[in-house]
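Technical note accompanying the year-one report. For the benefit of new consortium partners, we illustrate the data format agreed upon in the data management plan: each record pairs a sequence with a structure-token string. No post-processing was applied to the example shown here.
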Amino acid sequence: STPSAARVVVNVVAGTDQGPAATVAASIAIMSVAPARQRALSLMRRMLRVSRGWQGEGGAQEAAYIVSETTRSFRERATLPEGGAEAERALEEAEGRLEMAQHYSIAYPRMPHVALSGGGDVKSWMPPAEKGDVGWAAHL
């Protein structure tokens, strides 16, 4: 039977398999995981670059907060499995925070807008009562 890509990677790293097919399989296995790591490192670099030229209300204090929060967050999440759903959510959250920081000059986390429950339901909308009617249900 053919060994899995993970087994080939282990064999290549250990030096027990030096064939060209093993090297290609190892490269493919490594490249499939590398984009998530590359995306995280790129995002971290962008966040640190933003802190260098920070123009928010808090000035240098907010810039220092961006650096400390970036390093703290990425260190906490360094053990997440690459390509997993939780890692993807963490990257999306970080990208959202970066967009907020750049667009609105807000360094701190913000709550996302959540529509009120029931808002926009056409059935619950009541037209205004006619002029001269008495009581809240006069138009019914």
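Partners are asked to follow this layout when depositing records. The two ends are 77 Å apart (CA to CA).
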